[in-house]
Write a structure and sequence with these properties.
This protein is mainly alpha-helical. About 75% of the residues lie in helices and about 5% in strands.
Length: about 270
């Protein structure tokens, strides 16, 4: 079956789920919350299932794993959406989908329009494959943390001005939002640590492999998130300081992987 119809259905499901989240958040008093929540998650999981099929077709082949730029971007968004939807079954974080699901839809569209080739051989070591898996999981949780930080900043700003609207009232309490933020960062930091350790295990020549920028930026991101967790534990950091550190670490992480990959593949054609 052609990938185009599946991609379009996946995009429609993601956007439909995001639209329901927005409608529920901005019209909370009018919405049958539980029914809408179930429908929202159902559409999200449908989009994820179709996205899974697309990734399987695009990435897995006899020559190895095709992790070209847009394939990798789509895989990263799939990991983020999967983490969001699974976590939403037990925690009140589905509102993050208002931002994440449309972005995932965009990556599906880009992967459909711009297919590429960038194989990881089937003979690649298990450490390298473990490194890729851990990196994706760390990226997904820290992406959720970054979106959570943005929502926390908006919520904090409105509450400080004592002007909570329907959107703000639909979010969990500020303390709950902050606790969820640090939970995501804590787990993401552990995964990022393991990803870096597994990366160093297979890294033979950082400069010859054109990985120096990725490695340095990843380590800097690790230091930022580690510093934030230390500051939280020792000095009780929270609020705006926690938000700034979270977004700074996330920006470094984005530049580390996708910035380096964009330059190498789409500009330098390596």
């Amino acid at each position: 079956m052609s990938s185009a119809p599946i991609a379009l259905f996946s995009i429609a499901a993601y956007l439909g789920s995001a639209s329901l989240i927005g409608w529920r958040m901005f019209n909370r008093d009018l919405a049958p919350v539980q029914v809408l929540r179930q429908t929202t998650l159902g559409l999200g999981f449908l989009g994820l299932l179709l996205h899974t099929w697309l990734l399987y077709q695009a990435i897995f082949s006899h020559a190895g794993l095709n992790l070209a730029f847009f394939n990798a971007l789509s895989l990263a968004s799939w990991t983020v959406v999967a983490s969001l939807l699974i976590s939403s079954l037990s925690k009140p974080i589905e509102n993050l989908g208002l931002v994440i699901l449309p972005l995932a839809a965009i990556t599906v569209l880009l992967d459909l329009i711009y297919p590429g080739v960038g194989f990881m051989s089937e003979d690649a070591s298990w450490i390298l494959k473990l490194h890729v898996l851990l990196s994706m999981l760390a990226y997904s949780l820290l992406t959720l943390a970054a979106v959570q930080a943005v929502l926390l900043a908006v919520q904090d700003s409105y509450l400080r001005r004592r002007r909570p609207n329907t959107f703000i009232r639909s979010l969990p309490p500020l303390m709950t939002m902050e606790a969820l933020l640090f939970e995501m960062i804590g787990i993401g930091f552990v995964l990022l640590t393991l990803a870096l350790l597994s990366g160093f295990a297979f890294l033979e020549n950082m400069f010859a492999q054109h990985l120096v920028h990725k490695t340095v930026l990843s380590v800097l991101a690790w230091m930022v998130f580690g510093g934030l967790l230390l500051g939280r534990r020792v000095w009780g950091w929270r609020g705006q300081k926690a938000i700034r550190w979270t977004l700074s670490g996330f920006l470094l992480l984005i530049l580390a992987y996708f910035g380096s990959k964009f330059v190498l593949e789409l500009i330098l054609h390596r």
